[in-house]
Specification:
257 residues, Cobalt-precorrin-4 Transmethylase, domain 1, Methyltransferase, Cobalt-precorrin-4 Transmethylase, Domain 2, 2 domains, 5-stranded parallel β-sheet, 10 strands, 26% helix
């Protein structure tokens, strides 16, 4: 086994929602670095008995980089577990660039996102014909810089479905910005710890969601979903009779999918 670093999206929480490949990588890892405050501990049951488990909570970026470098030098396979998926809000880019700079091999295994889990829990598709065909993923202004043109206030003017991460502790500010583009009766859902046993769902509108969230004392690990798709549904033409007839292909049709 070649020494390297493998980044794995651990999924939204439920240990069974890690991908098949992700589970296999966990089973084969010599060293596993995980964020104890975000990762469901049960996912570590897939690790082999002699795997070294390291909680990254409280460790600096340089300390984590040193762990990568030192264990790979020892010929170990190092696995970094990130919550949800790795493609956004995971700080993976700076880690990959460090590894490339040091000529350390690495792979990336995607995971199930928490907004996908929220969609499943809400039993709502976030894109619906004639209602919304656009999904905006964003976060409020915070410690991490963000362009003004990407403010929630500006994005809300599109009227698309919006999923907001890292904002439930700022629910009043988030709602205030959302009002710039959405009417007060717009449906809102806050999903806390999607797919966990402790999952909670708070439903409301822009008018009352802030009060409901504060009453439930939810301040972290939540996604805020905004948009008419939470209550309205369109009808897809994908499986309509006319569409199926129009899309009938022959065996030798070069245009078939």
């Amino acid at each position: 086994m070649k020494a390297k670093v493998v980044f794995v999206g651990a999924g939204p929480g439920d240990p069974e929602l890690v991908t098949v490949r992700g589970k296999r990588e966990i089973e084969n890892a010599d060293v596993i670095i995980y964020a104890g405050s975000l990762i469901h501990k049960d996912i570590l049951k897939y690790a082999k008995d002699d795997a070294v488990l390291i909680d990254s909570h409280g460790k600096s970026r340089d300390e984590i980089f040193a762990i990568y470098e030192n264990f790979v030098k020892e010929g170990k396979k190092v696995l970094r577990l990130h919550s949800g998926d790795l493609s956004f809000y995971s700080a993976i880019q700076e880690q990959m660039e460090f590894l490339m700079l040091r000529n350390i091999g690495f792979e990336v295994v995607p995971g199930v996102t928490s907004f996908s889990a929220a969609s499943a829990s809400l039993k709502r598709e976030f894109t619906s014909p004639g209602v919304s065909q656009t999904l905006i993923i964003t976060k409020p202004f915070g410690k991490t810089g963000k362009p003004e043109k990407e403010s929630i206030k500006e994005l809300s003017k599109h009227g698309a479905t919006m999923v907001i991460f890292l904002g439930v502790h700022l629910i009043d500010d988030v709602v205030s910005e959302l009002r710039a583009g959405y009417p007060p009766e717009t449906p809102v859902a806050v999903v806390h710890k999607a797919s966990w046993k402790e999952e909670r769902i708070i439903r409301g509108t822009l008018d009352d969601i802030a009060g409901k969230v504060k009453k439930e004392d939810i301040k972290s690990q939540s996604v805020i979903v905004v948009g008419d798709v939470l209550e309205k549904s369109g009808v897809s033409k994908l499986y309509s009779e006319t569409f199926l007839q129009a899309k009938t292909f022959t065996k030798n049709d070069n245009n078939k999918p």
